[in-house]
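S.,

Sequence below, as promised.
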Amino acid sequence: MEFVSYVLGVVFQALFDFLKFLLRPVFVVIALILYLVYKIAMIAWLLIQVFYMIGKIIVAVVKGIFVTLAGFTYVARSPDDGVWSPIIRNVAQGLNYFQIDTLSYVLLFLIWFTVAWGVIRIIGSIQMGD
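The prediction came back faster than expected:
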């Protein structure tokens, strides 16, 4: 009985080795396909993260532009006297110490204008399909 079990063991081991030899290319192809799918999913996730960050930056820039524009509101109290919004007033009060408070309004507008111009240039340089 020992001889029969030894022969069957050798036969089944040879059969198993032969099947491994025949199916090895199939397993390699399956592994390559799964690896490709994995890498495509990683690239897709990275692109989603990049677009999310770009969206956050665009929202922050647009919000900053609107906050700056909202800071330029002028409320007239009387025909001779008017009050700028609190944002501009705080900037002017801070620069009053250096005696350049009247220049702060011009500087704030120039900062806003430069940011808006830069954003327009960046958006204008984006070319679809190239």
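The CA atoms of residues 67 and 118 lie 17 Å apart.

Coffee later?
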